[in-house]
Amino acid sequence: MSTSPLTIDHLIPQSLGGSDQLNNLALACHRCNERRYNFTTGIDPETQLETPLFNPRKQQWIDHFIWIRDGLKILGTTPIGRATCNRLDINDDFHNDGFIQESRQYWVDVGWHPPREDPRISE
Questions:
Q1: CA triple 122-104-101, angle to 5 deg
Q2: What is the mean pLDDT, run by run of 10 residues, along the chain of 123 residues?
Q3: What global pTM score does this model have?
């Protein structure tokens, strides 16, 4: 097991024919990379439709997600955003292990988070 905080994620998994080319790679935390596994789609909880996951090489974060004001949760604002949040359990909604919330609270406390340049922070 690596002690590095980030892993290299294949946006199209190698098991599905994805390459090691730069345009198919993105940095991800271990937790998100493990939860995404080899999925390229997720279920949008609002529409119940299978939807592509967010691709940071082709899409802009601000078009699909917002932070709630306290910086502890990310909300998907589109089917892609909601399906990605759901698939990655990005807010600890299913397991309630608290790790992500605890980390984000620390980042807020020391002034690292949420990104101040995002004008779409939700109430």
A1: 90
A2: 78 94 90 90 97 95 89 92 94 64 82 68 58
A3: 0.81
